[in-house]
Amino acid sequence: MTPRLGTLDLVPALDRLDLLADPVAAALSAPGIDASDAWVCEIDPGLADTAAFSEAYAVPLEASANCVVVLGRRAGEERAAACVVRADTRADVNGAVRRRLDVRKLSFAPTDWATETTDMAYGGITPVGTPAAWPVLVDERAAAIEWALIGSGVRHSKLVVPGALLAALPGAEVGAFALD
Q1: Greatest CA separation found in the chain?
Q2: What is the pLDDT of residues 45-77, one digit of tens each?
Q3: Which fold would CATH assign to domain 11-179?
Q4: Which stretches within the chain are classed as H helix?
Q5: Please, are residues 67 and 161 in contact by the beta-carbon 8 Å criterion?
Q6: Exposure pattern of 20-34 as b/e (b: 16+ CB <10 Å)?
Q7: Residue closest to 180 by CA, chosen among 86, 41, 66
């Protein structure tokens, strides 16, 4: 059954791989992955940012999840992660996320580094298809969304998946990773 979310025209993601960044399409098409509950929709790329998107397409913030890439160092080793939080919250970068990565200082990854490392567009980075070595830190409120609207790796579309799929991504860890 096709989910209903705002005014979006959703189609099965595997039917429109052209609307997904290459690593996202590869992750959803990988052997052993059930992408039957992954949906995609084309959007105006000028409305890809969460607040503008939510208003234009009548999707409540609590139905959307944002993915931020964070980066820290410990003993000369870079430690990166993808953090997934509901759009009406913020990632607890300086608390829970920093402690989980065991670094003294953690910050949002530089845009150029994040887009190059993920092979995804800024403003469209998604936890689906991030580098296998990265933990995917999914806030428990994001994992509880019935149908979570997330990035697709590009700015001209959005992906819709069950929150439970976020929790089942390779490398996913569900916990309290967001602030109100």
Answers
A1: 49
A2: 999 999 999 999 999 999 999 999 999 999 999
A3: YbaK protein (3.90.960)
A4: 22-29, 50-57, 98-101, 111-118, 140-143, 163-167
A5: no
A6: bbebbbebbeeeebe
A7: 86
* Domain boundaries, given as residue ranges, for the chain: 11-179
pLDDT in tens, 11-20: 999 999 999 9
Taking the C-alpha atoms of residue 125 and residue 139, their distance in angstroms, rounded to an integer, is: 17
Q: Which residues neighbour 55 within 8 Å (Cβ) at sequence distance 6 or greater?
A: none
Query: Residue 86: CA atoms inside 13 Å, Cβ hemisphere, count?
Result: 23
Which structure tokens are listed for 2?
């096709």
Residue 11 burial (C-beta neighbours within 10 Å; 0-12, 13-18, 19+): middle
Q: Helix (H, G, I), strand (E, B), or coil: what is residue 41?
A: strand
Give how far Cα 53 sits from Cα of 33, 44, 157, 158, Å.
29, 9, 11, 10
Distance CA 85, CA 138 (A): 6
